[in-house]
């Protein structure tokens, strides 16, 4: 049987939406509840964390993790979608040199303001921006503060430059390409995009959509589903041992726990942090401590 909860580290191919990718998995494995963290554009490939069953309640904890992308900017043209699938808006014969690019990179590390692409899932008065764009409606998107931890050049030619970036939640690589090109006195758009990491989900440990859909073994033999606790990092975790504690938690009752057995608890103010209780790799509850009393806020049993 499919576990009640868990993660699939999917490698999404190009030319398919994130929704279509997880929907095909849902049908193939007969999963009732499924969701994903961090949508990837149809033209993009790479790591797409997928939550199964009650792990869908934990998607927000993955979405906030830093992400790593590898991408290429083609200089000389800006498009309606800020990638190669859009129509040309503006063109320039000027291509920046690698020295000019290196000098500009420095100012982008840290917090910056960024306007998301018009073809994005950002909501404008309750409606998705990409839907308004398709209807040719006129609208503006407010800038958002986003974070870049690291940015480096991996390859450069006359009209193209490839980069690797580690960035925070809500960052749009397409917007960066557009804005960075303008800062270099030219135009630019994304011509290739790959997400290589989301938190503990890495390209190395991912499974391709094709391979996943070709699985012919019984559900009990599917080994591409990770335990829920294994993909959550930097959390305070405590393993439940007593069945009575499980029963009390299932009714939303508080239980006593041994603070000394909380993983990653050294020098942390426990009463202000979420504690994740787990059993055999599955998260069973999230809550906070009041002394040695665990008070559940969320139950996943």
* Percentage of residues in strands: 35-45%
The Rg value, from CA coordinates, equals 22 Å
CATH class of the largest domain: Alpha Beta
> How many independent structural domains?
3
| Helical run tally | 7
Helix-strand string: EHEEHEEEHEEEHEEHEEEHEEHEEEE
Uncertain residue ranges:
none
CATH H level of the largest domain: which superfamily?
Answer: Pseudouridine synthase
CATH topology (level 3) name of the largest domain: Pseudouridine synthase
Oligomer: single chain
Helix residue percentage:
10-25%
Describe the structure.
The chain is an alpha+beta fold. It has 3 domains: 5-65 and 200-230, Pseudouridine synthase (2-Layer Sandwich); 67-198, Pseudouridine synthase, CATH 3.30.2350.10; 235-299, Roll (Nuclear Transport Factor 2, Chain: A), CATH 3.10.450. 18% of the residues lie in helices and 37% in strands. The chain is built from 7 helices and 20 strands. It has helices at 18-29, 59-63, 98-105, 129-134, 173-183, 209-213, 243-250, and strands at 5-12, 34-36, 45-53, 67-75, 77-79, 88-91, 110-114, 123-124, 127-128, 144-156, 160-167, 188-198, 201-202, 207-208, 225-226, 236-239, 255-256, 275-279, 282-290, 293-299. Strands 1, 2, 3, 4, 7, 10, 11, 12, 13, 14 and 15 form an 11-stranded mixed beta sheet that branches. Strands 16-18-19-20-17 form a 5-stranded mixed beta sheet. It is elongated, with a radius of gyration of 22 Å. The model has no long low-confidence stretch (mean pLDDT 90).
């Amino acid at each position: 049987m499919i576990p009640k909860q868990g993660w699939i580290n999917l490698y999404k191919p190009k030319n398919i939406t994130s929704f279509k990718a997880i929907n095909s998995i849902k049908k193939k494995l007969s999963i009732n509840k499924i969701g994903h963290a961090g949508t990837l554009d149809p033209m993009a490939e790479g790591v797409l964390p997928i939550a199964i069953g009650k792990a869908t309640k934990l998607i927000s904890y993955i979405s906030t993790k830093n992400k790593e992308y590898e991408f290429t900017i083609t200089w000389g043209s800006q498009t309606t979608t800020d990638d190669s699938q859009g129509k040309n808006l503006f063109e320039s014969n000027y291509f920046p040199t690698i020295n000019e690019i290196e000098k500009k990179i420095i100012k982008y590390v840290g917090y910056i303001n960024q306007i998301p692409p018009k073809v994005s899932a950002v909501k404008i008065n309750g409606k998705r921006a990409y839907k308004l764009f398709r209807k040719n409606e006129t609208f503006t998107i407010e800038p958002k503060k986003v974070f870049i931890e690291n940015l480096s050049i991996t390859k450069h030619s006359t009209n193209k430059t490839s980069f690797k970036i580690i960035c925070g939640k809500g960052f749009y690589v397409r917007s960066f390409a557009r804005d960075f090109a303008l800062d270099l006195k030219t135009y630019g758009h994304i011509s290739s995009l790959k997400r290589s990491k989301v938190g503990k989900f890495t390209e190395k440990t991912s499974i391709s959509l094709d391979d996943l859909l070709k699985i012919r073994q019984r559900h009990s033999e599917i080994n591409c589903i990770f335990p829920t606790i294994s993909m959550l990092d930097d959390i305070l975790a405590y393993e439940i041992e007593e069945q009575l504690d499980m029963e009390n938690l299932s009714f939303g009752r508080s239980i006593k726990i041994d603070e000394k057995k909380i993983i990653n608890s050294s020098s942390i103010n426990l009463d202000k942090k979420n504690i994740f209780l787990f059993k055999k790799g599955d998260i069973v509850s999230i809550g906070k401590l009041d002394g040695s009393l665990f008070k559940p806020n969320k139950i996943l049993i």
